[in-house]
Each structure stands twice: as structure tokens, then as C-alpha cells.
Specification:
homodimer, Pantoate--beta-alanine Ligase, Chain: A,domain 2, three-stranded antiparallel sheet, 295 residues, 11 helices, alpha/beta, 20% strand, six-stranded parallel sheet
Chain lengths: 295, 295
């Protein structure tokens, strides 16, 4: 595996590899099994696997955790190596945003609700940096986790709209044994908070169960989702919604139809940690299959 | 030459050509020698030449000339064929902006002054459609005329910032015998307006001459530019500025330095027609060499 810091060197290395296909996994590092699962898929499906680790400042708000976002470059490189990454791109902020950088990619509609309401500018930062990384790498396939469900929808839309010839592949959320979605930010949680954080997966499971039991009112399901989360006084709920999986249109006030693919999506603040999670409501969700039978 | 209306077909045709290099000339059609010169350069420098004709609605303001923009698809195709274009892409608006399109590319700084002040949203429309066309075509080189000088700077910046692996090439403005810059919009001019329109090139020549005679005050040169244009009562001047050729920073209030590459840039409304023009101030400008000796 080669570790590369410059865009020009990255381009040259990809060109010189003469690979039939390039699989790309962009990350912000502090890698966990959510990421390494993406590497494994990329490795299985492509000749060359490129990963990037870049904590992108433009997708953090002024009061967010950019400065303290966890970093472990050596451990990350080891995980990349172990999971078949060929080229690991770790650029500096100045390499990605040289002086004079003036271009922003925005995606409307999909970004107004859910996390967009609580993180103004976040998705413009994401769309811009991912468009740039796609430009640098020129991958045939790019891999993202479904844990950041809105991000995945925004990136899919951006790549389609900008006619970027990449297949954007979303893979199921990877969870801890007890159901907590893996996230680099879980390291922020105290032991007590770690227990409360289980309520995200519990709320999603309860909502899936209510759907299976016949509940079709999106509002009732949203209320159940919220009620399960706010049982814990430590939880500052940001949102608990059902949304269309492609357009992210909120479904509150509607009656769910079979095969609609409604997605339950939640975000909350727990102490200093912001946590998000989501699940399919009306069909099997692979991310829940191993964590609790019957859920 | 093949005429293609679908993005998928365009991609397939480019892929199947297995060309070592692709040269691309995006246009809005109603082609003149300004465009065909770009085709000739693309033909000389690339294995495959792709041209597009697309009157992009998103770069026109609500009170602008989208609906009446001149169109001549058959004549245009003939000119493309005669100048070595291999693939002519003529998509519909729905092909470029299918339902649900939500992504916009904006370029800051470069777009606030000059035409940006008079055409809000124009350069976001330009940057977005050109990013999309670059995504569709994947060219090694793309060719633009210097007549739309701010547009060229914006596209250069956008392609660099989004790490699109394309060389953006600007070529000198092509002029009529009497100096009028060729433009598809010249067809709007009445015979009287056509005479008044010569004042754009005259003003640029006068300003170049004043610089050569020793004037180094950017403000004085801007005033001369404006004064030459507003001698005609029919002219509604929009702006007459000197600007840095890369950043487009306005130079009024500064003293020009040798080799700075200052660019005189003007826009005016003449009846229902908006006209723009520009010239290098402190070095030879090829677009003026054939029109008036000593200018």
C-alpha cells in the first residue's frame, strides 16, 4: 500500500496502475469496521482500491467538533493495509483547498430537512469535497455507509446531477453487538452515555416492530420513535422522522404504502456528542439482522 | 460526424472511439467563426472532437433573451461537419436537467463584479452546465473564446477547484473586419446599432493606445473607456473596468505595473441587445492585430 499526500501524485499513481476499475472509499479516518467493510467490498469488486482520509473542515459548523475530531493516522493506515487498500490518500487541508479556492457544490431539496436543519452548510461541504475527490480519483465505484443516510442520498444526487461517471454504492450500517451504530464519534461517549445511546437502535427496532404489527400512520410511527428516544432525560432530540429513501421527503401526515421503502431517521445530542441512526421500516434491514432476533 | 441527443449515447460513442485525447467545444449554437476557430484548434490538438450545442436556460435571467436566443441547428451542424467535429451533442433541456435535478455549482469572488453584478445567477448557471458537460464528455482539453472573459475565468476556476482533469484553453476573440467582436447576439442589432456597436472595439483600442502612450492610472484608463462608449447616447453602459486577468479583481484606484496583464472589460446595453468585449491592455492582443494597424 502506498500512502500519498499530493493530488498530482495520486493521479499519477492511479494512471500508472492501468486498472480496469477503481473502487474508492472516502473517509474522515478513525476507522472502524463500518469503514473496513467498505474496503472489503471495494477490494472484491475492483482492480484498484483507493481510500482517502481527510477531515474536511468545510463540512463542520463553527460550533462543531472539527478541532477535536478523533484522529489515528498510523492505526488507520494499518487497517487500510489489512483490508486491501492499494492507495491511501491523506492530503492536507491546503492540498485540498489551495489559496483562491472559490467553488461550492450545493444540492437543494434533499438538504433542507433532517440534518440540514441542524447543520447549515454541512451538505454543501460534503458535496463539494466529494465532487473534488471524485475528480481526483476518477473511480468507477464509490462506497459509503448507510449510517449517514442523508449524506448518501446527497452524494448520489450530486454525482448523478453533475454527470460524474461513478456508481455510488451504499452499504448497510455496521453495529456493535448491542446495536449501537459504529461511528468514529462513539469515542466521545462516557460509559453512562454509551448505555443511553442504545436508545437509538431500540427506537428504530420499536418502530420497525410497530410497522410489522400493522401501524401505517407515518405520524404515529414518528411519535413512537421520538417517545422511545426522549424517555432518557439526557437525550436532546433533534429530529425523528420517516422519509422517502430517495427524495428524503418527510412522510409525517401520510399513510405508508407497501414497498414504499420508508426510512426512519433520527438525530440527537447526548452530552457533547451528536449521534445519528436510521433504518428501513417496511422491509428487512440487514443492519438489524444480527443484533436482535425478531427486530 | 454523428449528431447525438442522449447523454448515454454520447458516453458510449466517446468510449467506443478509444481516442487518445478528446477535445471539447461547448457552445450555445448559432455558430460563427469565433466558434469554428475553436473547432479548428480542437481538431488540430486531439484525436476526437466533441462539440455541444445547448442553449442553457439556467444561465439566463428572467428578463433575458432565452426564448429568442437565435437558433440554427441545420446550419450549425453543417459548420461543425466542415470544421472536423466528430460528435455533435445536441441535448434537450430535459436531457440535461431531468426531473429532480438539484445540484448547483457556484464560484465565489470571480463572479461578484463585472457581469456578475448585472446577471445574478448567470455564472452559477454557466459553472453548473459546464461541470455537467465535462462530466458527460470527460475531455482532456476544452476550448472557449476570450470574448466571454469572465466566463472563461470562472470555468477555469471551477475546473481547477473541482479537480476535473481537463485543460481549459482560452482563444482570442474573433472580430469582424471593422473590429466588432463576433457574437451570436450581433444578429439582434439594427443597421444603426451595428455602427454604434463599433464603439466597443474603439474604446478598447483607445485605452490600449493611452496605456502605450504612458498612462498608468487604472482609474484614468477606466474613465477613458467609459467616456468613449458613452459618447453615443444610445449606449447604456453597464460597466467599463480594468481587472486582473486571473482573479478579476478590479484595478480602479491602482497604478498599473508592467507585465501585470491588466484586462479592459466592458458591457453595455444597446437597444434590446447586451454586448460585451474585452482586451489585454499592457501587451499585444491578437484579437486586435488584424483589425487596425497600430492598435
Amino acid at each position: 500500500m502506498r500512502i500519498i499526500a499530493s493530488t498530482a501524485e495520486l493521479r499519477a499513481a492511479i494512471r500508472d496502475a492501468h486498472a480496469g476499475s477503481v473502487g474508492f472509499v472516502p473517509t474522515m479516518g478513525y476507522l472502524h469496521s463500518g469503514h473496513t467493510t467498505l474496503f472489503d467490498h471495494a477490494r472484491n469488486e475492483n482492480d484498484l482500491v483507493v481510500a482517502s482520509i481527510f477531515v474536511n473542515p468545510t463540512q463542520f459548523g463553527p460550533n462543531e467538533d472539527f478541532a477535536v475530531y478523533p484522529r489515528d493516522p498510523d492505526g488507520d493506515a494499518e487497517k487500510c493495509r489489512a483490508h486491501g487498500v492499494d492507495l491511501l490518500f491523506m492530503p492536507s487541508v491546503a492540498e485540498v483547498y489551495p489559496s483562491g479556492h472559490a467553488t461550492t457544490v450545493t444540492v437543494d431539496h434533499l438538504t433542507t430537512e433532517l440534518c440540514g436543519r441542524f447543520r447549515p452548510g454541512h451538505f454543501a461541504g460534503v458535496a463539494t469535497v466529494v465532487a473534488k475527490l471524485f475528480g481526483m480519483v476518477g473511480p468507477q465505484r464509490a462506497y459509503f455507509g448507510e449510517k449517514d443516510f442523508q449524506q448518501l442520498a446527497v452524494i448520489r444526487r450530486m454525482a448523478f446531477d453533475l454527470n460524474i461517471a461513478v456508481e455510488v454504492i451504499g452499504l448497510p450500517t455496521i453495529r456493535e453487538e448491542d446495536g449501537l451504530a459504529r461511528s468514529s464519534r462513539n469515542v466521545y461517549l462516557s460509559a453512562d452515555e454509551r448505555q443511553v445511546a442504545l436508545s437509538l437502535a431500540s427506537a428504530l427496532r420499536a418502530t420497525r416492530a410497530a410497522y410489522r404489527a400493522g401501524e401505517r400512520s407515518a405520524s404515529a410511527l414518528c411519535d413512537l420513535l421520538a417517545a422511545t428516544l426522549t424517555r432518557h432525560p439526557e437525550v436532546a432530540l433533534q429530529y425523528a422522522e420517516l422519509a422517502d429513501p430517495d427524495s428524503l421527503r418527510l412522510l409525517r401526515g401520510t399513510t405508508l404504502e407497501a414497498g414504499q421503502g420508508a426510512r426512519a431517521i433520527i438525530a440527537l445530542q447526548l452530552g457533547r456528542t451528536r449521534l445519528i441512526d436510521n433504518a428501513a421500516i417496511d422491509h428487512d434491514d440487514p443492519s438489524f439482522q444480527t443484533t436482535q432476533a425478531g427486530a
